[in-house]
Specification:
Distance between the termini: 51 Å
Number of domains: 1
Shape: globular
Order of helices and strands: HEHEEEHE
CATH superfamily: Cytochrome b5-like heme/steroid binding domain
Number of helices: 3
CATH class: Alpha Beta
Bound molecules: protoporphyrin IX containing FE
Strand content: 15-25%
Length: about 100
């Protein structure tokens, strides 16, 4: 009985975690900490993306690492402005709240 109750609580918590993560706020200091291939975040148009698991599938290979831990919007638009958000929206982990440190 206790186990059953616990597993219910666990799944409810998981659900709210997914919803909260989409609204989570980060500044560039936090984004900058994730600047390596095994832990790679970047910013596109004011949204923060964890692309760590996408790097191996990226058609441009490790070029994406040029923007690791940074605002990738300019590089992204220079390289492939035609690539749509549907390709990367699943990696969104939150929004950028401050651009003070780049
Ligand atoms: C969320 C981030 C990114 C996504 C989803 C993404 C996605 C893609 C896709 C779908 C292509 C193939 C485009 C095509 O064939 O028309 C591509 C190619 C490429 N990407 Fe990205 N990209 C991202 C970030 C970046 C960044 C930050 C750079 C920085 C330089 C970059 C550099 C390149 C390059 C150089 C190619 C061309 C590869 C070639 O011509 O063979 N990408 N990317």
């Amino acid at each position: 009985m206790d186990n059953h109750r616990n597993s219910k609580v666990f799944s409810i918590k998981n659900c709210s975690l997914i919803e909260e993560s989409q609204e989570k706020e980060y500044n560039m200091d936090e984004v900058a900490k994730h600047h390596i291939k095994s832990d790679c975040w970047l910013v596109l148009n004011g949204r923060v993306y964890d692309v760590t698991n996408y790097i191996k599938n990226h058609p441009g290979g490790n070029a994406i690492l040029k923007a690791a831990g940074k605002d990738a919007t300019e590089l992204f638009n220079k390289t492939h402005p035609w690539v749509g958000e549907s390709i990367y929206k699943a990696f969104c982990i939150g929004v950028l709240i401050s651009k003070t440190k780049k």
